[in-house]
Amino acid sequence: MYDIGYFKSTEKEQILAFMRAHSFATVIGTENDYPVATHLPLLVSEQEERLLFTGHLMRKTAHHSAFEKNKQVLVIFQSEPAYIHASWYKNTAQASTVNYMAVHAKGAIHFGDEAATLDAIKNITTTHLGNAGPGSYDQIPEDYLTEHVKAIVSFSIEVAALQHVFKLSQNKSQQDQNNIIAELEKRGGSGDLFIAGEMKKIILKKA
Predict the structure, then answer these.
(1) Pure H helices in 76-135
(2) Are the CB atoms for 69 and 31 separated by under 8 Å?
(3) In which element (H, E) is residue 69 found?
(4) For residue range 21-77, what is the model confidence (pLDDT) as tens digits?
(5) Please, which of 26, 107, 174, 181 could form a disulfide with 76 given CB 3.0 to 4.6 Å?
(6) What's the number of CA atoms in the CB half-sphere (13 Å) around residue 16?
């Protein structure tokens, strides 16, 4: 991960907001010769100055086995990227690049009991669907929960180290930044529009 000052945010709340907005994360562990990874929706919270991720995963999988043997994990949150074409710069004799936002969090994973797993299911379901209506936690039949909860397990990850890169052309001139935004909006992909919007926030802060 880049460790370059101008690709960093000095605002803790911005980093937390980014993780919450991109909470379908990659959780990576190690077992034997190769890393293992899984992709999970996480809840991001602060408790008494501790940063925690909570969620649930399937039992009896390669990643569950790896996380049980080695509790040290890496969690990656990332945005869609946007390819930045060198022809968009005033001086085109430069390399093209990619703008993106990513956070890497390292910590220890701990598994919960059945009650904690039911809480995790409820919290994630309610976060995404609310607490009323079809699909909400209260609408799931109790016998269905009793049957399926045995196949999954809740977890929490307490973050020990946090790194991030918000690479948004901060090292380019105002003219180049404005042109990049215009070209991204013209191209119009979802990653393009997201990155253009984040670049605009930086420009507004400078104004």
Answers:
(1) 114-129
(2) yes
(3) helix 62-69
(4) 999 999 999 988 889 999 999 999 998 889 999 999 999 999 999 999 999 999 999
(5) 26
(6) 13
Residue 165 token pair: 């890169």
Domain boundaries, the chain: 5-79+99-169
Structure tokens at 159: 């973050």
Give the separation between CA 113 and CA 116, rounded to whole angstroms.
5
Measured distance CA(136)–CA(113) in Å, rounded: 22
What's the token pair of residue 44? 């991001």
Q: Provide the 8-state DSSP code for 189.
A: -
Task: Give the tokens for residue 22.
Answer: 């991109």
The pair of three-digit structure tokens given for residue 143, joined into one six-digit string: 């016998």
Contact 37, 25 (CB under 8 A): no
Q: Topology of 5-79+99-169 in CATH? A: Pnp Oxidase; Chain A (2.30.110)
The pTM of this model reads: 0.93
Q: Return the amino acid letter for 91.
A: N
Angle among Cα 76, 39, 36 to the nearest 5 degrees reads 80
**Phi, psi at 181, each rounded to 5°:** -60, -45
CA distance 43 to 33: 30
